């Protein structure tokens, strides 16, 4: 295992980048803890795979350094970094059996056959392929081949880090859940440093100790699932985490109030003068409909998803979402909405402003 340090790291695919906009990966300075499980989460094109490939050594950064436990590995080849990487699409040896595919990384490092046999059997059980060990990889489904690829990535116990680049893309939904569970079990048992790239928030939140949210080539927040939900540091985090995401509404802030078209929302903290684009953000879970309390809202439709209801509404000309409990009654005369003041975040130019205790 290794602590991974990103020191003044940035990358551009252009030979002569002239501005920050030319960088696919904006400058990063982060320490990733030894033995922690991280998920790199963001939309397609945000820089997740670029960062992963720099960590693995498949890509040389335009500037900065990568350190494993304080040792500079920026110019080290992938093989010298002692990592295992699993890619989005399966990479297997078609002419080998499943058993030999799983055994290959261990035999390549000279482990004795008794250990190889035991470890291969253990990994085959984890990925549900014990009955296929003697089959050739050629002719297997993409789903099965990706499980082999995952197993080969997990078979070594002595790696500095395990890197996963959207590894469950071709796996059926039920097997995705099982493999995520097995990956988490593997992490708890052996304590590998793991980095898991995905655009799926469910995968990220159920797998990782900490989620690294990326937007437009920049890390906008690193936090636990609870931190990302309760205090999104950037409006993108609020939008991307949650279903539906956070409501973001333009506002004018004065002290402990957010003004919207002459009406106001109470805030749990106080704020000074704010410049730029100013907005409030509140999760649908922290909004409540009523007949008499709060500000006017116009319900457009109600979606019953079983465990709760999602109310789609118009609020001063802006679309907002409100979540009501499964047993909560929603009637036509409930045309006002209120927000929990302690759960309302304030943003200036998309970044959260902390404010002072009220």
Automatic annotation (TrEMBL):
This is Carbohydrate ABC transporter ATP-binding protein, CUT1 family. PROSITE patterns: ABC_TRANSPORTER_2. It holds the Pfam family ABC_tran. Keywords: ATP-binding, Cell membrane, Membrane, Nucleotide-binding, Transport. Residues 4-241 form the ABC transporter domain. The lineage of its organism: Bacteria, Pseudomonadati, Pseudomonadota, Alphaproteobacteria, Rhodobacterales. GO terms for molecular function: ABC-type ferric iron transporter activity; ATP binding; ATP hydrolysis activity. Gene3D superfamilies: 2.40.50.100, Nucleic acid-binding proteins, P-loop containing nucleotide triphosphate hydrolases. It comes from the Bacteria. One of its GO terms (cellular component) is ATP-binding cassette (ABC) transporter complex, substrate-binding subunit-containing. Belongs to the ABC transporter superfamily. It comes from Cribrihabitans marinus.
């Amino acid at each position: 295992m290794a602590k991974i340090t990103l020191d003044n790291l940035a990358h551009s695919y252009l030979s002569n980048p002239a501005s920050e906009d030319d960088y696919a990966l904006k400058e990063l300075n982060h320490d990733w803890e030894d033995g922690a499980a991280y998920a790199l989460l963001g939309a397609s094109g945000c820089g997740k795979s670029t960062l992963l490939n720099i960590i693995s050594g498949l890509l040389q950064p335009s500037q900065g350094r990568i350190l494993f436990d304080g040792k500079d590995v920026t110019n080290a080849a992938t093989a010298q970094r002692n990592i295992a990487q699993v890619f989005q699409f399966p990479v297997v040896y078609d002419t080998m059996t499943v058993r030999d595919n799983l055994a290959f990384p261990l035999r390549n490092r000279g482990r004795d056959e008794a250990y190889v046999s035991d470890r291969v059997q253990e990994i085959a059980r984890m990925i549900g392929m014990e009955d296929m060990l003697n089959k050739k990889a050629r002719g297997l489904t993409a789903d099965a081949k990706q499980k082999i690829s995952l197993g080969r990535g997990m078979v070594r116990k002595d790696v500095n880090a395990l890197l996963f680049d959207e590894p469950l893309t071709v796996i059926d939904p039920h097997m995705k859940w099982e493999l995520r569970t097995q990956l988490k079990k593997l992490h708890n048992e052996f304590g590998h440093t793991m980095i898991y790239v995905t655009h799926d928030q469910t995968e990220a939140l159920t797998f990782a100790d900490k989620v690294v949210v990326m937007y437009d080539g920049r890390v906008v927040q690193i936090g636990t699932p609870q931190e990302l939900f309760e205090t999104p540091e950037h409006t993108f985090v609020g939008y991307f985490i949650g279903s539906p995401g956070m409501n973001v509404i333009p506002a004018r802030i004065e002290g402990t109030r957010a003004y919207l078209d002459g009406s106001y929302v109470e805030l749990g903290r106080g704020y000074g003068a704010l410049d730029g684009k100013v907005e409030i953000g509140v999760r649908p879970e922290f909004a409540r409909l009523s007949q008499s309390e709060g500000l006017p809202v116009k319900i457009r439709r109600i979606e019953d998803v079983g465990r709760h209801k999602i109310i789609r509404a118009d609020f001063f000309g802006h679309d907002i979402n409100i979540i009501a409990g499964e047993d909560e009654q929603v009637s036509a005369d409930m045309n006002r909405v209120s927000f929990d003041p302690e759960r309302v975040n304030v943003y200036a130019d998309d970044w959260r402003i902390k404010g002072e205790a009220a």
